[in-house]
C-alpha cells in the first residue's frame, strides 16, 4: 500500500475512534412525546427521557433525546400520556397482601352490618363442628348499632367467631369464643388492653388492643404454606403493587430472619420485582448485627425496626393525654414500650449504633409525645444528627398542637396514610371532640407548614393500597364519593405537588435513597409510571380514578395495561 495514502487513512481512523469515544454510548430505550413531571427542580417538565443500565441517561425534550438514540435504541412514543416518578408505598403489610392474594380469606371489609352477619351465617353453614370463623375488616363506625356478642351469637351460636377490626387493633367475638378463652365478667383487663363491658358489666365481645390476644391465642394454627407457596405469594404481591404504579414498598410488619431469607430467595428467582424495604423485629435486627442495604441492584434493603407504643383510635386503643369523649375516663392502651421513656430512648439509640432506624406506631397525642420524647433523647444518647438517624413516627394521627413543630426540618419524619383521615372522619370527633380534631388530627398541612416531611402510604390491610386513592384524599380531604363537598377540615389539605412528593421524594429521603430515587433525574434509577390522565390538570375530584398504563422499574417494563 502507498505509504502516502496509508498515513492519512490511519490518522482518519484514529480521529474517528477518538470522536466516538468522546460521545455517550446510545441509550437502550428512549421515551418521547410525553408529559413528564420529573419532580426535579432543574427541569420540572420534560417531553422525553433516555435510559441506559437501569438509570436515567437524559431527561429533556425530543431534540435533546436524539443524541442518545442509536441504531439499536428502542424508541417508544407515549402519545402525549403523563409520566410521574415511581410511587412509594411508605407503610403497608406486604406479607398480608401476598397471603390474601394467594389464599383469598373470608372478607368482611367495611360491610354493612346486615351483610356482615349474612356472610358469617353462610360461613357457619359450610364450617365443621367447633370450627373457628375468622375474618378481618369490620368497621363499626358505619353502623347504627354497637357491636355486641349477641349479634354474632344469633348467626353462630356454636362456632367461635373472631372478627378483627379493619384497623387491626380491636376484635369482636361471640360468646362461644369468650367461653373458649375463659373470659367472664371477673376477667381483668390485660396490660395495654381493654375488655369492653356492657351495661350489665359483662364482656360485650369487643376486645381492644392486647385484650384480643386473650382469644386469638386459642385459635388453632392455620395450615402452614409450603415453601413454594410462600414464594408464589410474594410474586403475586409484587405484581399487584407494580400494577398499581408502586415501584417501592416499605413493609412495616416487623419481619423475622426466616422472612428475610425467603425474600432474598424470591429475588434470586426473579419472583420479586418491586423494590422492597423491610422493617424487622428488634430481635432480628440484633441477630443481623447490621443493615442489609441495596441488595439485588437496589431492590432489597433491611434497615428499620418496627415498634408499637399504642393502639388505634377507632378501637379506642390510641393513648391520649385527655380521656376519650365517648368513653369517659378512658385514656387508651399504652404499650409497655411507652411506659419507660428512658428505656425506650436507649433501645432506639442502641439500634442506631447498629445502623438501624426505628419506626414506631404512634396514634394518640400521648403516644406521639412519648415517641417524640424518646426519639429526641435517643439522638442525644447516640450523638446521631436527625439526618443520620431519620427516625420515623408511624401514623402520627392525633398530635397535640405543641408537638407539631417537633417535626420541623425533618428532625423526625411523619409516615402518614391520607386515606385514614377520610375513612376515620366517620368517628374521630366522637372519640376526641371537635377542638382536638381541629387542632391536631391528621395535621398534614400543619406539619408541612413547619417544614416537616411526610411519607405517605396506605397501611394495607387497613386501607386499599391504590396510591391514587391516597393522593386524592391528601389533596381533597374527601372520600371517594367526594364527600364532604368542601373536604373534612379542609385547612389540612395539601397541594398536588406536595402530595406527589409524599409518595416519591420524601419517602426516598426517609429510606436514605434521595440520591438515587424519588425524581426523574439524570443518574437516578429509572423508575417511573405512565398514567392515563394528567395528575396536575384534571379536577381534583378525579385523582382517585387515575389508571396505570405502564410501570417501569430500573428501565424495565414490569407492568403494561396497554
Task: Describe it.
- It is a single chain.
- With 562 residues, the chain is an alpha/beta fold.
- α8 (227-243) packs across α9 (257-268) and α15 (418-424) packs across α18 (467-476).
- Residues 1-7 and 10-23 have low confidence and may be disordered.
- The strands form 4 sheets. It has an 8-stranded parallel β-sheet with strand order 8-14-15-17-18-19-20-21. Strands 3-2-7-22-23-24 form a 6-stranded mixed β-sheet, with helices on one face.
- The protein is globular and about 80 Å long.
- The chain contains 20 helices and 24 strands.
- β12 and β13 form a beta hairpin.
- 34% of the residues lie in helices and 22% in strands.
- The chain has 2 domains: 88-94 and 226-521, Metal-dependent hydrolases (TIM Barrel, Alpha-Beta Barrel); 110-165 and 167-216, Diaminopimelate Epimerase, Chain A, domain 1 (Roll), CATH 3.10.310.70.
List keywords for this structure.
562 residues, alpha/beta, TIM Barrel, Diaminopimelate Epimerase, Chain A, domain 1, 20 helices, 24 strands, globular, disordered N terminus
How do the strands and helices of this protein lay out in sequence?
Blueprint: H1 3-22, E1 29-32, E2 35-37, E3 45-46, E4 48-52, E5 55-60, H2 62-65, E6 74-77, E7 82-85, E8 87-92, H3 94-103, H4 113-126, E9 133-138, H5 149-155, E10 161-165, E11 170-173, H6 175-181, E12 193-197, E13 203-209, H7 213-216, H8 227-243, E14 246-255, H9 257-268, E15 275-280, H10 282-288, E16 292-294, H11 295-298, E17 300-308, H12 341-354, E18 357-362, H13 365-382, H14 386-389, E19 392-395, E20 413-416, H15 418-424, H16 428-440, H17 444-449, E21 454-456, H18 467-476, H19 496-502, H20 505-510, E22 528-531, E23 548-553, E24 556-560
Parallel strand pairs: 1-6, 2-7, 8-14, 9-10, 14-15, 15-17, 17-18, 18-19, 19-20, 20-21
Antiparallel strand pairs: 1-4, 2-3, 4-5, 7-22, 10-11, 11-13, 12-13, 22-23, 23-24
Amino acid at each position: 500500500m502507498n505509504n502516502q495514502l496509508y498515513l492519512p487513512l490511519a490518522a482518519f481512523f484514529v480521529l474517528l475512534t477518538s470522536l466516538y469515544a468522546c460521545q455517550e454510548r446510545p441509550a437502550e430505550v428512549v421515551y418521547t412525546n410525553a408529559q413528564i413531571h420529573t419532580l426535579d427542580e432543574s427541569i420540572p417538565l420534560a417531553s422525553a427521557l433516555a435510559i441506559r443500565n437501569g438509570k436515567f441517561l437524559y431527561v429533556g425534550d425530543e431534540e435533546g433525546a436524539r443524541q442518545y438514540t442509536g441504531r439499536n435504541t428502542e424508541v417508544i412514543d407515549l402519545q402525549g400520556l403523563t409520566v410521574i416518578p415511581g410511587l412509594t408505598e411508605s407503610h403497608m403489610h406486604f406479607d398480608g397482601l401476598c397471603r390474601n392474594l394467594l389464599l383469598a380469606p373470608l372478607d368482611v371489609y367495611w360491610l354493612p352490618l346486615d351483610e356482615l352477619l349474612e356472610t358469617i351465617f353462610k360461613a357457619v353453614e359450610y364450617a365443621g363442628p367447633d370450627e373457628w370463623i375468622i375474618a378481618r375488616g369490620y368497621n363499626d363506625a358505619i353502623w347504627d348499632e354497637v357491636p355486641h356478642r349477641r349479634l354474632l351469637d344469633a348467626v353462630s351460636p356454636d362456632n367461635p367467631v373472631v372478627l378483627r377490626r379493619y384497623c387491626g387493633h380491636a376484635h369482636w367475638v361471640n360468646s362461644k369464643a369468650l367461653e373458649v378463652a375463659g373470659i367472664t365478667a371477673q376477667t381483668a383487663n390485660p396490660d395495654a388492653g381493654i375488655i369492653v363491658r356492657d351495661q350489665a358489666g359483662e364482656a360485650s365481645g369487643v376486645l381492644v388492643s392486647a385484650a384480643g390476644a386473650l382469644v386469638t391465642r386459642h385459635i388453632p394454627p392455620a395450615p402452614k404454606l409450603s415453601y413454594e407457596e410462600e414464594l408464589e405469594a410474594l410474586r403475586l404481591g409484587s405484581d399487584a403493587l407494580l400494577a398499581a404504579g408502586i415501584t417501592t414498598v416499605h413493609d412495616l410488619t416487623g419481619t423475622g430472619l426466616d422472612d428475610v431469607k425467603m425474600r432474598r430467595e424470591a429475588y434470586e428467582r426473579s419472583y420479586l420485582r418491586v423494590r422492597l424495604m423491610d422493617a424487622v423485629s428488634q430481635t432480628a435486627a440484633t441477630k443481623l448485627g447490621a443493615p442489609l442495604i441495596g441488595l439485588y441492584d437496589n431492590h432489597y434493603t433491611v434497615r428499620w425496626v418496627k415498634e408499637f407504643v399504642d393502639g388505634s383510635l377507632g378501637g379506642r386503643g390510641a393513648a391520649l393525654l385527655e380521656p376519650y369523649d365517648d368513653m369517659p375516663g378512658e385514656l387508651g392502651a399504652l404499650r409497655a414500650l411507652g411506659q419507660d421513656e428512658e428505656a425506650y430512648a436507649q433501645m432506639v439509640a442502641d439500634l442506631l449504633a447498629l445502623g438501624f432506624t426505628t419506626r414506631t406506631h404512634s396514634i394518640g397525642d400521648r403516644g406521639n409525645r412519648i415517641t417524640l420524647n424518646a426519639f429526641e433523647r435517643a439522638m442525644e444518647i447516640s450523638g446521631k444528627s436527625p439526618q443520620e438517624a431519620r427516625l420515623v413516627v408511624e401514623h402520627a394521627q392525633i398530635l397535640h398542637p405543641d408537638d407539631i413543630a417537633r417535626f420541623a426540618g425533618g428532625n423526625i419524619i411523619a409516615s402518614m396514610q391520607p386515606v385514614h383521615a377520610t375513612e376515620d372522619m366517620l368517628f374521630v370527633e366522637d372519640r376526641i371532640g371537635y377542638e382536638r380534631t381541629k387542632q391536631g388530627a391528621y395535621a398534614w398541612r400543619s406539619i408541612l407548614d413547619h417544614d416537616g416531611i411526610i411519607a405517605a402510604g396506605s397501611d394495607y390491610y387497613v386501607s386499599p393500597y391504590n396510591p391514587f386513592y391516597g393522593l386524592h384524599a391528601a389533596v381533597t380531604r374527601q372520600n371517594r364519593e367526594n364527600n364532604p363537598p368542601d373536604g373534612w377540615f379542609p385547612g389540612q389539605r395539601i397541594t398536588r405537588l406536595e402530595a406527589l412528593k409524599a409518595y416519591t421524594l420524601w419517602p426516598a429521603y426517609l429510606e436514605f435513597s434521595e440520591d438515587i430515587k424519588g425524581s426523574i433525574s439524570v443518574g437516578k434509577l429509572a423508575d417511573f409510571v405512565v398514567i392515563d390522565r394528567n395528575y396536575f390538570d384534571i379536577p381534583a375530584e378525579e385523582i382517585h380514578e387515575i389508571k396505570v398504563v405502564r410501570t417501569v422499574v430500573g428501565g424495565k417494563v414490569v407492568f403494561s395495561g396497554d
